[in-house]
């Protein structure tokens, strides 16, 4: 895959509300989305665009439907109304063959890794290649070892079961499986949740390195302020059932909304911003 569409670190895209005219740089376009469970409306008139090569962070208070939005994009949660187009296609309107082909263009890392507990790490990674790419077990295993190395895991981890791994290793193994079919876009649901600060920072750096090296687009649901300040090109805030703002972080942080102000300018927000500034200073030096 070409990396020509990737945004270089530190380069901000122009601010946007998440609406606007779709163009060739838009890989996911969401328009007038509504998600409803019985009487509970989670999203209403939600609009958002994800641009090729960016890392887009999605934040919001508890119950705002961040993970529901991710599931809507990948087709696991059909919306009550509205449209979700991935690579220009309405996933839910495609026939089975076309949908499976389109789904192979993105990889998903769920919050807890979602590895199969009865399979070893290498078997977990190889399975999508066997099931969807038609490779035999030997070929799939060889490629799975390459994916394992890509995410920084050693060959010793290959034959371990998920229960034998640390939290950070589970995340990396799940990421390797998400990369099994060479996707163009990664969907990550709370990828650093449960990790200690050192492991979380290392995982953030891995995501950014993979984006730059492979030309990936990344949709990232997170509560981690360090992640937002360190690797995200834009941040989308879900509030009041829709995307309140979607822009580079410095612009989002100035949005006159009570939740945004408390989130980004509270003690943790100030600490994350200060750490980001120190890291930028070290890079310049």
Characteristic key phrases:
ABC-type transport system involved in resistance to organic solvents, ATPase component, four-stranded antiparallel sheet, 38% helix, 10 helices, six-stranded mixed sheet, 285 residues, ATP hydrolysis activity, P-loop_NTPase, ATP-binding, 10 strands, alpha/beta, AAA+_ATPase, 22% strand
Give an overview of the whole structure.
This protein is of the alpha/beta class and 285 residues long. The protein has 10 helices and 10 strands. It has helices spanning 66-73, 96-103, 121-132, 137-150, 167-178, 197-214, 225-231, 249-252, 258-265, 267-284; strands at residues 26-37, 40-51, 55-60, 81-86, 89-90, 106-109, 185-189, 217-221, 234-239, 242-247. The strands form 2 sheets. The protein has a 6-stranded mixed β-sheet with strand order 6-7-8-3-9-10, sandwiched between helices. A 4-stranded antiparallel β-sheet has the order 2-1-4-5, with helices on one face. The protein starts with 25 loop residues before the first strand and ends with a helix. Residues 1-21 are annotated as: Disordered. It comes from Frateuria aurantia (strain ATCC 33424 / DSM 6220 / KCTC 2777 / LMG 1558 / NBRC 3245 / NCIMB 13370). It holds the Pfam family ABC_tran. This is ABC-type transport system involved in resistance to organic solvents, ATPase component.
């Amino acid at each position: 895959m070409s990396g020509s569409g990737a945004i270089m670190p530190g380069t901000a895209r122009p601010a946007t509300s998440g609406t606007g005219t779709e163009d060739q740089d838009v890989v996911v376009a969401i328009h007038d989305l509504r998600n409803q469970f019985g009487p509970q409306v989670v999203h209403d008139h939600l609009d958002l665009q994800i641009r090729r090569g960016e890392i887009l962070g999605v934040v919001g208070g508890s119950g705002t439907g961040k993970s529901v939005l991710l599931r809507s994009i990948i087709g696991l949660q059909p919306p009550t109304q509205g449209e979700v187009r991935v690579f220009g296609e309405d996933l839910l309107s495609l026939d089975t063959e076309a949908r499976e082909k389109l789904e192979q263009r993105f990889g998903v890392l769920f919050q807890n890794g979602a590895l199969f507990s009865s399979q070893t790490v290498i078997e977990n990674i190889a399975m999508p290649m066997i099931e969807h790419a038609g490779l035999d077990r030997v070929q799939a295993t060889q490629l799975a070892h390459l994916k394992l190395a890509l995410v920084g895991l050693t060959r010793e981890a290959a034959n371990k079961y998920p229960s034998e791994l640390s939290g950070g290793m589970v995340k990396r193994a799940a990421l390797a499986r998400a990369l099994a079919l060479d996707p163009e876009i990664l969907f990550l649901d709370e990828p650093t949740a449960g990790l200690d600060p050192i492991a979380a920072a290392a995982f953030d750096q891995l995501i950014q390195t993979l984006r730059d090296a492979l030309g990936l687009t990344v949709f990232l649901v997170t509560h981690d302020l360090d992640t937002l300040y360190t690797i995200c090109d834009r941040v989308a805030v879900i509030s009041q059932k829709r995307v309140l703002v979607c822009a580079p972080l410095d612009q989002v942080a100035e949005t006159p909304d009570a939740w945004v102000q408390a989130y980004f300018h509270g003690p943790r927000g100030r600490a994350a911003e200060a750490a980001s500034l120190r890291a930028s200073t070290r890079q310049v030096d």
